[in-house]
Structure formats: C-alpha cells, structure tokens
Amino acid sequence: MHLAEVLFWVSFGALIYVYIGYPLLLALIAGIMPRRRPQAGFTPRLSILIAAYNEEAGIGRKIEQTLALDYPPDLIEILVLSDGSTDRTDAIVESLRDPRVRLLRLSGRKGKTNAQNEGVKMARGDVLVFSDATTIYHSQALRHLAANYADPKVGAVSGRYQYFDPKGKSPTGLGTIAFWSYENLIKMMQSRIKTISGCCGCIYSVRREAYTALAPEVISDLVQPLHVIRRGYRVAFEDRALAYEETTQSTSEEFSMRVRVVTRGIRGLLSVPTLLVPWRFAWVSFQLWSHKILRWLVPFFLLALLGSNLFLSQNLFYRLFLPAQGLFYALTLFGLLFPIQRLWKPLGIPLYFCTLNAAAFLSVIEVIRGKRYVVWETVRT
Questions:
Q1: Which candidate, 155, 154, 142, places its Cα nearest to that of 43?
Q2: Hey, is 310 helix, strand or coil?
Q3: Which tens digits make up the pLDDT trace of 79-92?
Q4: Within-domain flag for 38
Q5: What is the pLDDT of the chain when averaged over all its residues?
C-alpha cells in the first residue's frame, strides 16, 4: 500500500508539474523580464525553402501566396525541394516563369531534413525560412521574422502556428487548436526569458551561418535550434509571424503524424546530449527536461497513476479519483467510436490528449527498438 501511494503521488506530481507547474514557473520568471518587440524594418535577403512530396494539388497556390507576401520582391527567393515526387509537382513548379522560383529535384525519397540540407546548399539568402507546402502565411509574417535578425545575437526565429478546422468535423480539431495555443504561450514566455529550444516546423528561420546539416532521421525544427544555441546564438519566438495550418481530419492521421514527429524528436534530442547537462547549459537543459523529456514520459505517468489508484481506497480522495479517471478514458473511447465532439466540441479534448500520449508511448518503444522515420506521406482530402 505504501509503494502504491508513493507511485501515485510521484506520478500525480509529475503530471501537475508538466502541464501546470512548469508553465506557471515560466510565467513568474517572464513577468519580471523586459519584453523584446523588434520593429519591422530590417530586411535581409531571404531564401524560402518549401519541402514537398506529391503536392500537385496546392504547390502552385502556395508559391503564389508566398510571392504575394509583404516583403521587398527583390530580396526573396523560393526553393521548392521536391523529395522524389511522382505526381505533377515538379512540372507545376518548372512551368512558373518567375526567376525567383527554383526547383530542386531530389531523386529517391530521403525525407524532409535531407531535402532541407540539400536546399541550403543552393540558397542565396542571408536568412533561411523553412515552410511546408500546405501552410498559409500571414501577409506580414516574413517582415516580423526578419526584424529579429537586426540583433546579431539571434541565430534563429520561430513563427507561430495557428490551426483551424475548416469543416468543424475533425475529432481532434479543438484539441489541436487548444494544445498549440498552450504551446505558443509557453514559447512566448521562454523567448521572453532568454531563448526557446524548439521551433514551429512550418514557419521557422535560421541565420545562414548558424545552419547545421542534420541527420535525415532527426526532426529539424527541434534539433536545428539546439545546434544554433550550441553555436552561442539565441533562438527567438515571434508571435506576430503567423502560419495557418489545417488540423488533421482523422484520429488515425493525427496519431501516425505524432508518432513520426515524437520518434524523430527523441532521436534528435539524443544527438545533442550535452544540452541536457544542467551545469553546462542550465536554461536550455531545464527547458528540455521539463518540456520535452517529461512530456514524452507522460503516458508512463498516466499508467502508473491508474495502476496505483487501483490499490488505493483508504480515503475518499482515492475512491473518487479512480472513477474520475475511468470517466475520462470512457469519454476518450466514445470519442474514438462516435463523433461526440459534434454535440459539444470540448468532448473531443480527451481523445486528443490520449492520442498525443499514446503516440508518445509508442514513440519511446520505437526508439528503443531502433525504428527510424525519415520520409512522410502526403495526406489530402
């Protein structure tokens, strides 16, 4: 019984720290720090690298939208990195007559990170901006990203995700929107204190001389900023640089995507172990342990919490907490089997929470087994 209690409270405390304690601690520290808000006006030459695989449905629209962004036209170039596309993606890009648009055709599929490595070799800009083919940028996004580079200590800048569910039918749509609003708030506080330790994958940028070529199996938007930090730069979060992205439309799609992302994230973090050493990189190590490693261990805390609670019934709290857990997981199961979120959108949040953590659980197992995720599959409805 004593062991069950210890396991229960350690797990419960870890969950409270991950989701509430850590953000509150950041808020307290950020509250006493001056806020950095660079003014738009600094306009370095930009290379916008768009990774694409079989994006014929939207690549033309993406390029047109990017060219129309509010930034000096003579200071941008667009590189479409086609990772072995087998549809009309390459032909559509080559048909465009704008000299600022170039295609890099990569034979054989080697993944997004490899494509970015190759694209950087061709890029002419002072700042590299990494985007996805499906992402829509706010008209001022590039100006807000670029303004941060007026500070020579800034080596990378992340923009902000803003997810939307166009049909309102995604079982995990509200959960995705809520989760990324929460993540953006954390990034904003981290940046205000000193530096963030991970960027938003579809809108982030790196100073050309701070870029490091990465292994294909790691996730670049987490690992690239860590290498930038190792070089002595700061990584900033620019909340005014908005990128709009559609939520996934099925639980299985969300789960598969999260498994791939977390597995690559774990492998990426293991590739820079020195940043996890508190006495060498105190602030970054604190972030990575609190916001990454403990977050990936949440499913194990949840299992320990439920398992230990089964053996605890000596007071009212334990007796009420067990059925509360049961109700939460029952809502998750109902959300998986039936579209209950259409009755009331918050009913979809348990499903999203459990989908994230089931993916994290499998990702840890995949890393232990030696599984590597390099390429991605395009999903369009």
A1: 142
A2: coil
A3: 999 999 999 999 99
A4: no
A5: 92
Structure tokens at 157: 């800048």
- pLDDT of the residue at 379: 52
Residue 322 placed within a domain: no
- Asked whether residue 1 is assigned to any structural domain, the reply reads no
Q: How far apart are the first and last CA of the chain?
A: 52
Q: What is the dihedral of CA 81, 136, 241, 356, to 10 degrees?
A: -90
pLDDT in tens, 147-199: 999 999 999 999 998 988 877 777 878 888 888 899 999 999 999 999 999 99
pLDDT tens-place string over residues 327-353? 999 999 988 888 777 777 788 899 999
Angle at 246 between CA 374 and CA 214, to 5 degrees: 25
CATH number, residue 133: 3.90.550.10
DSSP codes, 30-92: HTTSPPP-PPTT----EEEEEEESS-TTTHHHHHHHHHTSSS-GGGEEEEEEEES--SSHHHH
Distance of CA 89 to the CA centre of its chain: 25
Torsion of CA 296, 302, 303, 304, to 10 degrees: 100
- On whether the CB atoms of residues 208 and 156 are closer than 8 A, the answer is no
Nearest of 67, 61, 47 to residue 128 by alpha carbon: 47
Residue 2 CB coordination number (10 Å): 6
Whether pLDDT at 1 is above 80: no
What is the reported pTM?
Answer: 0.92
Q: For residue 337, count CB atoms less than 10 angstroms from its CB and return exposed for 0-12, middle for 13-18, buried for 19 or more.
A: exposed
**Both tokens assigned to 231:** 């070089």
| Range 338-342, long-range pairs (CB < 8 A, 24+ positions) | 339/169, 339/171, 341/171, 341/173, 341/174, 342/168, 342/169
**What is the reported pLDDT for 124?**
96
Q: Is residue 175 part of a domain?
A: yes
Residue 236: name the closest of 171, 296, 293, 158 by CA.
Answer: 158
Contact present, 251 and 171 (Cβ < 8 Å): yes
Total domains in the chain come to 1
Q: What is the dihedral of CA 364, 268, 192, 33, to 10 degrees?
A: 80
The domain of 161 spans 46-279
For the chain, give the longest Cα–Cα distance: 75
